[in-house]
Write a structure and sequence with these properties.
Chain lengths: 263, 440
Amino acid sequence: MSENLIVPTMAEMMAQGKQPEILFWVGSAGSFDDRAKKITRAFVKILNKANVNFAVLGTEESCTGDVAKRAGNEFLFQMQAFMNIELLNAYEVKKIVTCDPHSFNCLKNEYPSLGGNYEVLHHTQFIQQLLKEGRIDFNKDTYKGSRVTFHDPCYLGRANSEYQAPREILSQTNADVVEMKRSKSSALCCGAGGAQMFKEPEKGNMDINVLRTQDALETNPNIIATGCPYCNTMMTDGVKFAHKENEIKVLDIAEIIANAQNL
Amino acid sequence: MNFLDNIFFALLLAIGIGYFTINVKKLIRNIKLGQDVDRSDNSSERWKNMAMIALGQSKMVKRPIAGFLHIIVYVGFVIINIEVIEIIIDGLFGTHRVLSFMGVFYDILIGSFEVLAFLVLVAVVVFWIRRNVTKLARFTSSDLNGQPKNDANYILYFEMVLMTLFLVMNAADFHLQNLGISHYNSVGSFPISQFIAPIFNGMSEGSVVIIERAAWWLHIAGILVFLNYLYFSKHLHILLAFPNTYFADLNAKGKLNNLESVTNEVKLMMDPNADPFAAPANPDAVPAKFGASDVQDLNWVQLLNAYSCTECGRCTSSCPANQTGKKLSPRKIMMDTRDRLEEVGRNIDLNKGVFVEDGKSLLNDYITPEELWACTTCNACVEECPINISPLSIIIEMRRYLVMEQSAAPMELNNMMSNIENNGAPWPYNQMDRLNWVNE
């Protein structure tokens, strides 16, 4: 992994007196989690390929506070939110794209009443736009004959009613897209939301990601497609739990498209 | 003699409606124990939601069998109320089938009541079988042990009896009409009860009249008893589903409210010019509590939610934590909230209008932290609820109390939160490393 990515920061842009088309909000998982970093890189490849004029906050970015808020720590959430909003407003950010549905939901729905008003898109929505506008292209045969099933992230789907964007992207891959028995508004959570990612689950008879992976395995897929770094980790663990990691890949929509661009 | 009947009827009606009114007042008072929240915006969208979801049952039919049967019972209930109007007029003025002057329209009306009454009977029997014979998981889980389970069955028995009385009343009437007895003019059409009527063949006229009158009285008395049972039952939803859908949260499901009291504190903390020794401008502005440990800390819409809950368990059956054997049941959250609110209400009644501290609270005595921490905030329960109740909003309020008032988060979450405070990420990495992914 040594291809050169072009990743300008807002600070660099500002120094040059430029304003990017979009801010790419990387998020904490996308910055630090080893699996999620690959998703981040895949998305940047797509942005580079499409010549999207974007920037990141880089070391100036901080946690949105989403996970603190859901854990019940409204103080910490608002501290984070105010800091981020101050920064975003100082850079006059108008449009934000992120690969993390939790950041997406938080920036889109919870920042406005604290003074942060932006147009916020999930990366699947943005990729869908790029495809529609013909700004990106990919090899449609890469996934021909593969079975792909999409796991809806709670914070993109139920929380914000976006079910179509990821499906429309997948439908253009020529893969055989199959739905799980529970999908869209009735999709089962991967088990990581609401701060569960950072703690052991409460006592029960099964882990949620194992149950959700069973849903996916019932469709007999080659690829489980995700749109959230947490879902990705949970489904990857679920596939390992079922000893299927050699047959089934868990890939983010961004990775699916970037791979087909032979980048 | 007739005169006595009318007085007795008026008395019965007054008692029935009077007691109901007293309980409705109590209900409103209890709901108002909650914190204020503004739901006066977007009235057109709110009316639309109410029309679609409460009146139009749009979310009920997502589970088609239960949805279809529910619609029958619901339509039956709504339409048969027109019959109740006639019964009340007849009862007060000693008339018989006073609306029959409508002629053919009356025939259609009575005919459709009969068909619906029959369908309701069928639906209620199927409901009874689902609960007691095939034992659907969501109707047999431990949330419902005791009164809730009995409550559900009482309602079904009640409806069976009321529908049977209605059909017997009509059958007897039909029989007497055919005999040409005075007072029983040939009116109405009886597509169902005409098949019951033959059981009266060979009975004396007087006996059939007594049966007709008995069924009539028991029917209306039953309706009044049922009306008053509502307050003590999950069946309250037939009334509260309407305001509940009207006042439901209209925001995207993912949006949690931002606590304004916290905003003020945080702004003060972050303002370099703030004088930390200055007295707060308005000392009353700081709430007694962050988050909720008891029902009075919840807002009135959440309390209305609790009273509106039908205990159908669709939330719990879709909850990922519940499906994997964790203690959390969103239905139980709602039932606990209502039980505690009722307890607080009784306390207020006993103590001449003021709540006297009883050493109990919704948190711990009803809902345990273990349940609260099992929630993934996935919104499946909110999505599933046929009348837009949000158990999630209560869970979050109670987590807020645990974290901000008691610092009682699970240890791993405390670590996560201190990482955010120190490094701006839930993991213990340096903020300066945030861009390392570019070169990996």
